[in-house]
Amino acid sequence: MNTPQPAHPLDLxxxxxxxxxxxxxxxxxxxxxxxxxxxxxDLLRRTLxxxxxxxxxxxxxxxxxxxxxxxxxxxxxxxxxxAYSYAVKHFHPVANPSMGEHLAVVAVGGYGRGTxxxxxxxxxxxxxxxxxxxxxxxVVETVLYILWDLKLKIGHATRSVNESLHEARxxxxxxxxxxxxxxxxxxxxxxxxxxxxxxxxVVAGTEAEFVTAKLAERDARxxxxxxxxxxxxxxxxxxxxxxxxxxxxLWLAQYVYRVRTPDAMIRVGLFxxxxxxxxxRCTEFLWRVRCHLHFVAGxxxxxxxxxxxxxxCERIGYAGRDGMSSVERxxxxxxxxxxxxxxxxxxxxxxxxxxxxxxxxxxxxxxxGLVRPYRQRLGAPGFKLDNNRINIADxxxxxxxxxxxxxxxxxxxxxxxxxxxxxMRLARRSLRLIDxxxxxxxxxxxxxxxxxxxxxxxxxxxxxxxxxxxxxxFIPDFGRIVALMQFNMYHHFTVDEHLIRTVGVLxxxxxxxxxxxxxxxxxxxxTLQHRRALYVAAFLHDIAKGRPEDHSIAGARVARHLxxxxxxxxxxxxxxxxxxxxxxxxxxxxxxxxxxxxxxIRGFAATVQTLERLKLLLILTVCDTKAVGPGVWNGWxxxxxxxxxxxxxxxxxxxxHSAVSGSQRVAHAQAxxxxxxxxxxxxxxxTYKVRHYPAYWLKADMARKVKHAAFIRAAESDxxxxxxxxxxxxxxxxxxxxxxxxxxxxxxAILTGACAxxxxxIADAQIFTTTDGLAIDDLFLTRAFEEDDDxxxxxxKIAATIENALKGKLKIADLVDRKRPKTAxxxxxxxxxxxxxxxxxxxxxxxxxxxxxxxxxxYDLTTTLGKLNLNIASAHIATFGEKAVDxxxxxxxxxxxxxxxxxxxxxxxxxxxxxxxxxxxTVKTVATGA
Length: 930
Prior knowledge:
Elements: H1 13-28, H2 33-62, H3 65-91, E1 104-107, H4 109-112, E2 122-128, H5 134-149, E3 154-160, H6 161-170, H7 172-179, E4 182-186, H8 188-203, H9 207-225, H10 243-257, H11 262-267, H12 273-297, H13 309-316, H14 326-355, E5 383-386, E6 389-392, H15 397-400, H16 404-415, E7 418-419, H17 421-429, H18 436-439, H19 442-452, H20 458-467, H21 470-474, H22 476-479, H23 495-511, H24 519-525, H25 531-540, H26 551-566, H27 570-581, H28 585-592, H29 598-608, H30 611-626, H31 635-654, H32 662-676, H33 682-689, H34 694-699, H35 702-717, E8 723-729, E9 734-742, H36 747-757, E10 762-769, E11 774-782, H37 788-806, H38 812-819, E12 832-837, E13 845-852, H39 857-867, E14 871-880, E15 883-891, H40 901-915, E16 923-928
Parallel strand pairs: 2-3, 6-7, 12-16
Antiparallel strand pairs: 1-2, 1-4, 5-6, 8-9, 9-11, 10-11, 10-14, 12-13, 13-15, 14-15
Helix pairs in contact: 1-2, 1-3, 2-3, 3-5, 3-12, 6-7, 6-8, 9-10, 10-14, 12-13, 12-14, 13-14, 16-19, 16-20, 20-23, 23-25, 23-30, 25-27, 25-30, 26-27, 28-31, 29-31, 30-31, 36-37, 36-38, 36-39, 39-40
């Protein structure tokens, strides 16, 4: 048995107790190998658990993530060495080992670096002299079974030195793992031979190959995990700006420069002292987060999801401050670190480029005509072309003229050229030059506006400015929201990334790239009088996030201050301020109001006032929504916005006056339908038209009226009292489910319950009752499948559930209850709010209910409203991450608005009950109108 290792400053008490405990095992079970093995596994299991607990306690005390990772690695080392030592001494002893009876146990991969998270894999290589023998196979098997009994996740391989080198030549993963090989126990001579031959036979002369492979591997990994480092639920290990990026930098430095530490990187010229210190800070912080995350999750969890962010934040010790919650402050720190990792990556890549030929770089491969001739002239003193990229001509270019810090990026955009990493590096080091005189420089601001409103690649260039810190220094209000996240499930990116993406979407619409996806925005963007104001509004619309006050109002104030500095005239500045203050209005109205109600359009038109503002707000709303994150925008939202636009446009153009009475409009709608149904005789049509109330004729569009008429006639011809129909709409991204059935107060609850039990999300609902006691309801379900056949099959299953429920063959409540989660999600605190508004519609009371979303919530709400004897005329459903915002247009059973205080109080109480649970929420009520 090997001599016990001396104590190390990073050893845990459990490690130091292990050696004497192992000696005691030998004394107690010397003649009983089976009992010895059982006692060994029990001792090692206790050691691991005690050691992890001690590492957790030390982490909570010193908050040093790197020290924690090293302690955990040394804990694992002690366990592996003990398993091997007992295997060769007690279970498979050899008095005079032959040439084949030698073995080295080597830590490889992440374990080889000597750092581990609490639940990391343990990657080991068993190195043989030349081939496996019965002895080596037995030892390896014994060691592995001991480690498996300890529930460790072992990655292992058994190879000779020659086999290891052969595999490394053909497999880049194995080559990388050996790069970090670390001797653990056994025959050190074998390890030394492996290491020496690896450097001479594998590494030497293959540096360019390795660099190319590792950078390609990084690109593929980032594509899988998300191309942005500002995703609000980041993967600490694999995500962009995470640990794997730092690992890649170390691999490249080791392979190409033969250095393993930040200090050694300074010696070979990769980093300066500040950058090396940054590398160490980033490494420690990411290890701190990852270790805390593993301890919180109790497993190898690498995604810093919303469920874990509060606990990790609390363990690290962040507190709320300056309008930001503790979680938001913690996550901002995380994203700033990820940003620094990106800067370090650029530095190393630039140095590697000096050694190896690389492909011609491009600013953005999607911009037409990107690659320019090498002889192109920039026409700007202080800059030059370097491998078809913009680089600095001398080290004083920014000192001599600080405006060059903005001009650098304008040149990149204007010429569609990438920026050399050396120029970016110097820009980062020159941020102190961005002071008040530069911010107030008309030339600098003019250059910035040219970048922002460019038709080339404003998103790419703004992101480069943000990555190196220039954007936040030049626009200090933007600097306040750099790396700022919002702790909710709706926003997928940090605020700064969202704003930059919003500008990017606007540029795509402006250039015509999104003409098919957004036909209305495309058609009106070229008619704008205030194009420049729209770009500034897109860039600033969330600039005041993270402040205690309403960000729309505060943002408008920022715009009024910043507009003149950027060179906007008073009219443009006021337009920007108005757009920012109202940037959520159109989306909210489109998703939560009845767009067929004249009062909705009248109120919205009064807010917008001019056709130009309507155009600007429509385009800004589209860009804002699309930039929130994948899956947030869909065709249904686009249809709602187009409907609101087209309903409002004539009111703004004519002043909102109409000489046509309601009865005349009803008669006109009936005449239109009669013309569209030539196969019907007059008696049949006259009988049909009196079955619908005036509201139906005014609200339903012609296509829907035709569809309803044919559907109702077919159902009644077949003698059906309950009928359903399914239709898909790929462009709008919805599936329409139409139901014809006897009317009763709980009808909508049954429909929503059937959808909830099937996992279907309702985007909207139109509800019409007939004069003979029937109902024709349209539900618009968010599409779940790409192919129509799959979507129709899903819709038919939901329709069958509805028909069976309406015919009394099953209980919807039971189906919904089976779908409810066992425990409620309490990660987010969403206050419940109820607005009872009688001013939004002439005919209906509008109930706007918002609160924490959950499976079956819409069913619970509609069931509750039914029990309150309220008729629901239409329902408008919007979900913003974890927050549900549902609006219901209701009357009492006599068709009157809900105006009595006692009835309103009953509604408040019932809605509070829907959201109550282990932690009842306060219900806020605003009652408007009589």
